[in-house]
Each structure stands twice: as C-alpha cells, then as structure tokens.
Specification:
Blueprint: E1 3-6, H1 8-12, H2 22-33, E2 39-44, H3 57-63, E3 71-75, H4 79-88, E4 92-98, H5 101-108, H6 112-128, E5 133-138, E6 142-143, E7 147-148, H7 151-164, E8 168-173, H8 180-190, E9 199-203, H9 210-219, E10 224-227, H10 247-256, H11 265-273, H12 292-295
The chain binds coenzyme A and zinc ion (ZN).
Zinc ion (ZN) is lined by residues 11, 172, 202, 204, 244.
Length: 320
C-alpha cells in the first residue's frame, strides 16, 4: 500500500499571496481528511514575516476535526516553531534543509551545517515528546541557483539527518526539474545506505515529469509519496518552481500501474473546490522563459526554452 502525504495546505498554500481565511483552510483540511490520505501537512510554524499565508497555523490546527487514521503534521524550522507546533497539537513535525548551500541561505537564512545545529535540539525534544520527525531535503536534484546537485551531496545530508534520529526523509525536487533517470541514479546511491521504507519522495511538476518520477521511485520500493491536490503550490524562495505534482493524478497513475492506494479522487476534488473562491484552478503553464528554472532546463538553448518551441514541448500539469 502506498501512503499519500497531502502537502497542499502547507506547500500548496505557502506561495499564494491572497490570504485565505482560516476557516476555509480548516474546511479544506477536514475535506482532505475524508479522502483516505495517510497524512496531511496542515501548516508551517515558520516566521510569519517570511510566510504570511501560514501565520494562522495554530488557529487552523486547533479547529480541524481529526480522523484517527490520519497524521496531522507541521513544518517546523527551529525550536520556537517546535514549541508552537506542540502547543497546537501537531502529531508529527517536519524540519527542512537542502542539499544546496545557496538555497538554504535564501530559504532558512543559514548553511547546511547551520541547519543541522538548529535541528539537533528540535529532534531531541520531539523524541522526548514521542513526536515522529520527518526531514525534508530540498533541491535534491537541481537547484535554481547552483544547477545540478550530485547524489553524493544528497546522501551526505541524508546520512547526517538519519544519524540525528529522523524517522523519515522526504527527498524533494523543489524546482521540478528531475528526470526519471536522475531519480534512479539518486535512489541507487541513497538506498545503498538508507532503507526504502524511511524515504518519501516529493516532486514538483514544473516540467510535467512528476508522475514518471514517482513511478520510477516506486519501482525502487519507495512507499511514501507527497503530493498536493490540484497541483497547488511552489516555493517563494525557489524562483521558477511551480506546484507539486497533483494528488489526484498521482493516485490515478499509481492505481493504473497496479499499486494499492486507498484514496478517493472524487473526495480530493471536493476538497480542492473549497479553495476555488480564492485560488481558481489555473490553466497549465510553463515557467516564464527568463526564470532560473527555465535557464537550467535541457530544452533551453540560450535563446528559447521549451515553452517557446513549437515541437518537443513536454506535457505539463496533471494528467487527470
Ligand atoms: N515562528 C515564529 N516566528 C519565528 C520563528 C518561528 N518558528 N522563528 C523565528 N521567528 C521570528 C523571531 O522571533 C524573529 O522575530 P522578530 O524579528 O520579531 O524578533 C524573526 O523571526 C527572526 O528570527 P531568527 O531566529 O533570527 O531567524 P532568521 O531570520 O534567521 O530566520 C527562519 C530563520 C527559519 C525562522 C526563517 O528563515 C523562516 O521562517 N523561513 C521560512 C522558510 C519557509 O517556510 N520556506 C518554505 C518552505 S520550503
Ligand atoms: Zn514542495
């Protein structure tokens, strides 16, 4: 059985500039709880100045109706965030670092080393409280600032996080530029040291390869898949990154591939509709040609990118 981690309420909303009312977020999470997903990343206890959309994380957590079989997790950057998450009743926390130094500086204002120092007391205290901890490794394939990231660099960060006591790692393609072969290369390296059941995958769908990348990961024994209903999302600190791969498309593709997934796509779509008044469903778009994500793409020839090519344009967006 593949576990689906719905990250729409956090990763999906963090990039939206129009502030969505807290009660709409609560209704969104409640509707997602009915869909069969294993875990919902409800919000982030980060600096409200950095991510104003999620400053109501405590209110949302306190007002959701919890289902017994669903884990309600929160993104936490430091000890302050952990205390806020604990007070709000998060069942699990996620800390986040990146394989790229530049992205880390822009996202969390510290180096990879600095992030490890920040996490140590967070993971220790979470352990004492019996809270499971996930560690995100952002930019695990490509970085908008540094280009290609080597699998060895990702393994180094992954091993440090596992040594610290993480329960799970989420390997993230933050700018959505990985190819299935790159996924295979990273899995070969990671799985030589870390068991597959401790690894989740998190793909953004900038170039429409999210589904293929997930299917390739699953062929390596990965059983935890992050996704965002309707393909919501992006990271405000990763120029050119578009939304996560859409949960409903992931579920459909996994079922088609013969995997067991106990998620109801109709109910997922009903949850997404709660946001329609604030975030109308967008037509599928390519990143703008001058975005860093685009200039790193193999279709970019220095003048034009795949978005301006008549042929060879990859399929973008959810397939459902
Ligand atoms: N919750 C609420 N406020 C927080 C906080 C938290 N977890 N951590 C720090 N702050 C506040 C501090 O109180 C301080 O406020 P002040 O300016 O009013 O005194 C301010 O934020 C700066 O704190 P500092 O500890 O110096 O942090 P920083 O400036 O080095 O920022 C992070 C570090 C990680 C807190 C910040 O970069 C951040 O929240 N980034 C979010 C990144 C993100 O969510 N990205 C998307 C997900 S990939
Ligand atoms: Zn993401």
């Amino acid at each position: 059985m593949i576990k689906i981690v719905e990250v729409g309420p956090r990763d999906g909303l963090q990039n939206e500039t129009e502030i969505i009312p807290s009660d709409t977020k609560v209704a969104f999470v409640n509707a997602l709880s009915e869909s069969g997903v294993s875990e919902i990343e409800v919000s982030a206890f980060v600096s409200p100045k950095r991510i104003p959309q999620l400053k109501d994380a405590s209110i949302v957590f306190k007002n959701i109706q919890r289902k017994k079989r669903v884990i309600y997790s929160a993104l936490v950057p430091n000890s302050k965030g952990l205390e806020r998450a604990v007070n709000a009743g998060a069942n699990k926390i996620s800390v986040f670092t990146a394989a790229s130094e530049t992205f880390n500086q822009k996202n969390i204002n510290t180096s990879v080393e600095g992030s490890m120092e920040r996490f140590r007391p967070v993971v220790r205290r979470a352990g004492n409280l019996g809270l499971p901890v996930r560690g995100y490794i952002s930019t695990a394939f490509w970085c908008a600032f540094e280009g290609k990231i080597s699998p060895r660099a990702v393994l180094g960060v992954a091993q440090r996080l596992m040594d610290m006591g993480m329960d799970e790692l989420s390997i993230s393609d933050t700018i959505g530029k990985a190819s299935p072969d790159e996924v295979g290369m990273l899995m070969d390296v990671l799985l030589s040291k870390i068991p597959a059941e401790r690894i989740a995958v998190h793909f953004h769908d900038t170039y429409g390869r999210g589904i293929d990348n997930i299917l390739r990961s699953v062929s390596y024994g990965i059983q935890i898949v992050d996704a965002s209903v309707g393909g919501l999302g992006g990271c405000p600190f990763a120029p050119g990154a578009t939304g996560n791969v859409a949960t409903e498309a992931v579920v459909a593709a996994l079922i088609k591939a013969g995997e067991k997934v106990a998620v109801d796509t109709e109910r997922l779509m009903r949850a997404r509709e709660m946001l329609d008044p604030y975030i109308p469903a967008k037509p599928d778009v390519l990143p703008p040609p001058d975005s860093p994500a685009c200039s790193l793409c193999e279709f970019f020839d220095g003048k034009k990118c795949c978005g301006s090519m008549a042929e060879g344009k990859p399929q973008i967006g959810p397939t459902l």
